[in-house]
Amino acid sequence: MIITSRIEVRMAEPKTQPTTESLTSYLSRIDDPARRADCAAIAEIMTKVTKKPAVIWGTAIVGFDTYKMEYANGKTGDWPVLAFAARKNDVTLYLSKTVMDEEDLAATLGKAKQEGGCLHIKKLTDVNLKALQQLCARTAKGKEA
Asked: What's the rounded Cα separation, in Å, for the pair 44 and 38?
């Protein structure tokens, strides 16, 4: 005897969605003045390369432009092409893992920690801004994170 069962799994919408909060409001919530200035500078770089305004996603992510991301279950949803978040110990940038793996830029970036498509920066003065802008531009050009 063969018994089969059918289980239907419904995927919830991603919790992190675009909001109407302004970049100014987001930046004002960052207590550390140096981190706030770094985030403003990163927002300027990302706006320049995407030619799109900042959109706050959820409570913590600042995104620029969007692309259709496909989930493992085949569903799709919008997600920022470029994004960053001010965290307690650093600023996390969400970039393309493919672009991040390019050795020519990684070698010139400076003091930063890479984990997949995430780049963790303690201070913006620790990194080569030209290399960072190139990473952002290459990610934006590929239109996928």
From this structure: 10
pLDDT digits (tens, 9 = 90+) for 67-116: 988 777 888 889 999 999 999 999 999 998 888 777 677 778 999 998 88
Q: Can you count the helices (H) and strands (E) in the chain?
A: 5, 6
Q: What pLDDT, on the 0 to 100 scale, is given for residue 12?
A: 52
Output the six-digit token pair for 12. 């919830």
The SS3 assignment for 45 reads: helix
Q: Give percent helix, percent strand, percent coil of the chain, each to the nearest 5.
A: 35, 25, 35
Q: How far apart are CA 114 and CA 93, in angstroms?
A: 10
Residue type, 102: E
Q: What are the structure tokens assigned to 6, written together?
A: 């059918």
